[in-house]
Design a protein that fits this description.
The protein has 13 helices and ten strands. With 334 residues, the protein is of the alpha/beta class. The protein has two domains: 192 residues, 3-Layer(aba) Sandwich (Rossmann fold), CATH 3.40.50; 74 residues, Arc Repressor Mutant, subunit A (Orthogonal Bundle), CATH 1.10.10.160. The strands form three sheets. A six-stranded parallel β-sheet has the order 5-4-8-9-3-10, with helices on both faces. Strand 4, helix 3 and strand 5 form a beta-alpha-beta unit. Keywords: ATP-binding, DNA-binding, Helicase, Hydrolase, Isomerase, Nucleotide-binding.
């Protein structure tokens, strides 16, 4: 048994397999927390143990915990692990899922605030391409000169930045944006006419609703006593803004990630969300998970020396209890 800050006895069975830093991350429940988790450091174990701890200690009901992942597979794994820890199905974790699935659920409850009906459809990329092709045909734009997928990539970039058509600021250096901009306006109107939205709209509409309807914002910001986010280094502007809006009442947001594994800037991810977390959320506690359970020391040493050249990072020192292992070799092929 262990005791927390309030000297309340805690059944420590699910904490036994955690190292010191992992345990600290699980037990810290008051205020913003950024967990800098190196590769192979057990971040999923920390997140699931943290959820279980919140429930077990009655800090919040399961439906008062918002847990966000990037893939359905990761969400399912988290749900299964929490169920395993609690020795029961985690059926109450109704707000555990991906950014898109959670926003879709929220949007269906408040669809009219976005000009939609609650039975709106979510179109996939094939439907998007067909819609853009029809718009281009009507506007006499040659899709061989301006590919529909490229048009959609620009529209998606605008949505990731939180821009509806009326908010777009054109990049004068991009010769295609001037042509794509009016297509965006037509595209958005077509979606409304079809009672549909694309994946970018799911988050964009939710942010717009929360930002402009304080009564709706109050419902969710009051309800979510704890927010947990996985792979935070991969979030974009609109995702980060959505999370910020939901912390209006409670500041118990815990984001886990690794700035050394930020590889999705090409699809809108903004590493500054991670690096500037403690500036956005005051009194942030930062915990580093530096014990690697996956690689040999030789691999970690080479990787650490290489990534140290990147000055735009929080920094950490990975270590392992494993053997040194074979020397890392660099092979060149022609």
């Amino acid at each position: 048994m262990i005791y927390n800050d309030n000297l309340k006895m805690i059944n420590s069975e699910y904490l036994n397999n955690l190292n010191k830093a992992q345990k600290e991350a699980v037990l810290y429940l008051n205020g913003p927390l950024l967990i800098v988790a190196g590769a192979g450091s057990g971040k999923t174990k920390v997140l699931t143990s943290r959820i279980a701890h919140i429930i077990k200690e009655k800090k919040a009901y399961p439906n008062q915990i918002l847990s966000v992942t990037f893939t359905n597979k990761a969400a399912k794994e988290m749900q299964n692990r929490v169920s395993s820890i609690l020795k029961t199905e985690a059926i109450g974790l109704s707000w555990l899922g991906t950014f898109h699935s959670i926003c879709a659920k929220l949007l269906r409850k408040h669809a009219t605030a976005a000009g939609l009906n609650s039975n709106f459809s979510i179109i996939d990329q094939d439907d998007q391409v067909r819609l853009i092709k029809n718009i281009c045909k009507a506007e006499n734009i040659d899709v061989k000169q301006l590919a529909p997928k490229y048009i959609l990539s620009i529209i998606d970039r605008w949505k990731n930045k939180g821009y509806y058509p009326q908010q777009v600021i054109l990049n004068k250096k991009d010769i295609y944006e001037k042509t794509i901009f009016p297509l965006y306006k037509i595209y958005q109107q077509k979606l409304l006419d079809l009672n549909a939205c694309d994946f970018g709209d799911l988050i964009l509409h939710c942010v717009n609703i929360l930002e402009n309807n304080s009564d709706i914002n109050d419902i969710y910001s009051n309800n979510f006593k704890y927010i947990l986010v996985d792979e935070y280094q991969d979030t974009n502007f609109i995702q980060s803004k959505w999370l910020k809006l939901l912390t209006k009442k409670h500041q118990n947001i815990c984001c886990v990630g690794d700035d050394d594994q930020s590889i999705y800037s090409w699809r809108g991810a903004e590493i500054k969300n991670f690096l500037e977390f403690d500036q956005v959320y005051k009194k942030t506690k930062i915990i580093r998970l530096e014990e690697n359970y996956r690689s040999s020391q030789n691999i970690l040493s080479v990787a650490s020396n290489l990534i140290a050249n990147n000055q735009n990072r929080i920094g950490k020192t990975l270590k392992t209890t494993m053997e040194e292992g074979d020397l890392v070799k660099l092979n060149c092929f022609k």
